[in-house]
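Incident log, support desk, overnight shift.

02:14 A customer reports that sequence design results differ from what the structure should imply. Their input is reproduced verbatim below. On-call engineer (initials T.W.) acknowledged and began investigating.
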């Protein structure tokens, strides 16, 4: 099962049947496809928090389960069985978080921090296939935003 909870939230579609599907043996995979929010950390958090709202109880999904859904099972759903885990023979795909930001300070610097406190704004470095793609330079972030603005403007020009 693949979920993009922020998209469902934005569209007012409700929450997906994640607990029932998990109970039936489906593996949770998370994505982020919303035009309103692109933040896999928020997607992880939303699965548990949406269930809390729906049921008024806590503890539906552990931080470890949600982190796995965003990494190992997420990569597996794309056919990349050699990614999503730190292991010999796997791709070196890593994300380095700032564990001392205003959102993450004092949260334990563990999987709970990644799932329940961090946001995309806490990402400091990104490595894919063993190559650092983002090294924390604020200029890199600005450049990405500027490129996105140009591409989006081109798309809109083609639509109109």
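02:41 Re-run completed on a clean worker. Output:
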């Amino acid at each position: 099962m693949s979920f993009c909870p922020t998209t469902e939230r934005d569209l007012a579609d409700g929450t997906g049947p994640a607990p029932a599907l998990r109970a039936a043996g489906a593996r949770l995979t998370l994505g982020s496809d919303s035009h309103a929010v692109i933040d896999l950390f928020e997607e992880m958090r939303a699965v548990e928090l949406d269930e809390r709202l729906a049921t008024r109880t806590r503890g539906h999904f552990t931080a470890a389960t949600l982190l796995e859904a965003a990494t190992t099972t997420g990569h597996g759903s794309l056919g990349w069985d050699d990614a999503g885990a730190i292991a010999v023979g796997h791709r070196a795909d890593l994300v380095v978080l700032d564990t001392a930001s205003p959102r993450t300070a004092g949260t334990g610097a563990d999987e709970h921090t990644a799932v329940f406190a961090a946001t995309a704004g806490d990402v400091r470095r990104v490595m894919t296939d063993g190559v650092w793609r983002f090294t924390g330079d604020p200029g890199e972030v600005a450049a990405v935003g500027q490129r996105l603005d140009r591409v989006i403007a081109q798309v809109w020009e083609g639509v109109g």
